Amino acid sequence: MSQLVDCIFVSTEPYTEQGRRDRSPEECFRFCLEVNVYAERLVQFGFSEQEIPRPLIHVHRVTELVLRSEPSDDLEDFLAEIEWSRAVMEETIDALETVGADAHARFLAAVHNDLDGFEYKVRSSNLGSIREVIAKAVEEHLSADALAKRYGDFGVSEGDDLDRRWRSICLQAVRYMDGWTNIKRVPNGPYNDAELKRYFDSRLEFARRLAAEGEGKRPNVVSINDTKAFVMASLNGDVEAVQDMLAAGADIDARMTGGTASLTHGATALMTAAAQGHIEVIRVLLAAKARVNTRRAKYGETALILAAQEGRLEVVRILLSARANINAKTAGGYTALMAASRNLQLEMVQTLIAAGADVNAKTKDGQTALLYACGRPVDQASTSGAPVNQSGHIEVARALLAAGADVNVSNSEGWTPLTHASRDGLSEVVKDLLAAGANVNARTDYGFTALMVALSWKRAEIGRLLLAAGADVHAATKSGQTALMGAAGSGFLDLVQALLDAGASVNAREGHGSSALIMAAGSGHLMVVEALLAANADVNARIKFGRTALWFASMNGHLEVVQVLAAANADVDVKDAEGTTALMIASKNGHHDVARFLESLRPPSGTAGAS
């Protein structure tokens, strides 16, 4: 692929001013690449095998090689071993002279049209991405006038003068590109965004000209029925190009293939226009009878789902008026209403509900619109317990509940709207769900209740709401974790006390043997430790590795907790399974105040056995 990038990376400085030598034909030929590399790329760009004579595919390389400066060392090393035979050189020249420079224009147009599909970095780190390389090539491209000034207006010579014939073809190619893209390139000129965009969009200009002039006027640069060009015109909102290609017979419902960009792969023109919000293009396509419910290849989105996903409310309304299937699903069962709910777009949610969207539709993993509205993506969720911006969640959840959304629906892992909202700190949503009849003690597949989830994620306010709503304080997960452990580990003293008052087991143990006291002590929550001890927590309970609350408090340097535990008759000489004592781990971790305190509890040396 780095060969493809380098083939259009050109140099601009006047060679005479820089004192650079011209490359001999042999040097140029050595840097030309073997046929199969480009044949494979051209096929991917939509060329048929019959359209690619073996030597023809080197035309782009031919044009640039006589213009380029010294290549970077790594590229030169990479290409140094590639050789061409004289027979292949002559075959190439003959083909180029026969077909003309149009092939060069066509190749570049194909490459530029597929830029968005590339996520490739060239070998040389200083060259950047393929987009940057091509942008630089365009910026620095020598114009036809500059090329003619350097070489003269060469004609095609007879005989074996390969060098002169080669250069003549290059001149034709550059002039051809200048004429067809309407871009005036100035050597060493400034970077120009507007002209660069026109250069990248030139494939659509080719299609327009061919439609206007007729197929027989020029060699075919890009087919007027080219799906990629048509879909890209729609993606870019180019109404004129879309109209021209429709008039020339473009397949209005064809799906784009071969691309990898997220909005174009497997999509039709209507889908890309809907996703981008190009209303005028959408109106043109619908007037031309585009199929509104066609599904995107592989993923199965319709234009309506893509519009909802991208927040295009006006597009959604237009598509609904064109009888788009409001309950169409992707391959995974995702609907337009789910997309709008997930993105918290209240007006769109209301529009879809009013048009008959199924509020209880499920994806393959059991997600519904309400589940999406009641939680945030996990990568956006926080365990800090900090205040959460609930804007959007409240309104969308209320709209869905009012429309009959199932408040106790659960996904494939047993999560309900209440557990989602409890995890993500959406206290107002929790209130609405409880008022709508949410089961406060529903469990996930692993056994978590909403209360456990809230306390594990440091949501104290929600924990209080759930306790007041009758949450089961005795519930435990499959591994034995309880709400009291979550509250103790998070340092929520009032919730710990409330759970104890409600009868929560103070000495319950989870799978590794940890207890509420061990969790509180290890986190340094002094007042929680005191409350648990007052409730008769086992001060010397051990996890499977033999470590106790005092051992963990010592490891983490919580001096006051260590002192309280010691006063409650904790074993200060406790050793873990590896023989490490609390004193040893405190010293190892640099908690010298804890180490001194533990040392002070040991009997003075020499006192044992004294008479």
From TrEMBL:
A matching Pfam family: Ank_2
Keyword Repeat: yes
Membrane-crossing segments per the record: none
Stretches forming ANK repeats: 265-297, 299-331, 332-364, 413-445, 446-478, 479-511, 512-544, 545-577
PROSITE patterns listed in its UniProt record: ANK_REP_REGION (PS50297), ANK_REPEAT (PS50088)
Recorded superkingdom: Bacteria
UniProt-listed InterPro entries: Ankyrin_rpt (IPR002110), Ankyrin_rpt-contain_sf (IPR036770)
Keyword Transferase: no
Keyword vocabulary terms for this entry: ANK repeat, Repeat
The protein's name: Ankyrin repeat
Native source species: Bradyrhizobium erythrophlei
